[in-house]
Amino acid sequence: MAEDKKKDIVTKYLADMIGLEGHIYQAIDKQVKGTEDEPDVNPILRGMRDTLERHTNALRERLEALGGKPTSPLKEAGASVLGVAAGVIDKFRAEEVSKEFRDNYTAISLSNISYVMLITTCLACNDQETADLATAHLEENAQMVMDIGNLIPSVVVRDLSDLTDLNENAAEEARQRYSQVWR
Q1: Predicted confidence band at 100 (pLDDT cuts at 50, 70, 90)?
Q2: CA-to-CA separations, 48 to 1, 8, 55, 74, 182, in angstroms, rounded
Q3: C-alpha 126 chain-centroid distance
Q4: Do residues 42 and 151 touch, judged by C-beta distance below 8 A?
Q5: Three-state DSSP class for 68?
Q6: 27 contact partners, CB below 8 Å, separation of at least 6
Q7: Each residue of 141-182: pLDDT tens digit?
Q8: Which residues are within 8 A (CB) of 148 and not within 5 positions of it... i.e. 6 or more apart?
Q9: What pLDDT, on the 0 to 100 scale, is given for residue 156?
Q10: What is the DSSP string of 6-38?
């Protein structure tokens, strides 16, 4: 009985992650389509989208291996609850690319802390395989967040390019400050 309850808890968290990463994927997929003429940011967005798609597929496979169903009400509940932040991205999307990346940073950060919760739950419930999968995904998402943090200064300066008298060193100075904070 206790093992069934542990399995139910893990499958609930997996369903939540499928919903969350799926919502983030959808928002970033729209950004990919909207930036096809921007060769400096489109490949970055495509990479993020492809990683999130791979994560969602792997999570779904793991959920099915545990006997869960990705179309279950549990998954839908996870999508509606944890996918709210990603859904807000899509609804309030700003024209500036920098704001889209800011929103992606926020959504992926939510995913990161959700992965920490999933990892902890899996370890507590003795599900090493799911914990390992979640850890691999967390590592990739953490890298995406760091990459966005390093990219944002250049994108912000680009978004401001119609202004005159901009500090030409602003992007590099901001990038250095960001890096110093995370050391």
Answers
A1: very high
A2: 40, 30, 11, 26, 21
A3: 26
A4: no
A5: coil
A6: 86, 87, 89, 90, 93, 103, 104, 107
A7: 999 999 999 999 999 999 998 888 999 999 999 999 999 998
A8: 101, 104, 105, 108
A9: 94
A10: HHHHHHHHHHHHHHHHHHHHHHHHHHHHHTTT-
